[in-house]
Predict the structure.
Amino acid sequence: MYKQKTIGVVVPAYNEKRLIVATLASIPAYVDTIYAIDDASTDGTGDLIENFKTEDARIVCIRHETNSGVGAAIVTGYKKAVEDDIDIVAVMAGDNQMDPEQLPNLLDPIIEGRVDSVIPDEPRI
């Protein structure tokens, strides 16, 4: 929970074997649920997500049977977050490009009622 709001993070992933565990491990403790969407990866990404669930109970692994693209993976995560009554949902790509320390900069304007949604300026590289 962050400032009295439940927080979900959707992590779309397709063939992110090298970076998915680092991405999931970097998500701050105040995030209530992590929706890791394996978009029919062929490199074992889904298995790594499933295995990491033993270390982090916040992870919900959802697997697409066919590759549907990053947009569809995000929608899948959003729909599950809505079903779970999560207050605010953010997206962090499965390739570890977002700096998790920036998450409050996305959440705070929403919590303060200044905006309905936030899109970050630049990814971390």
About this structure: The first strand starts at residue 7 and ends at 13.
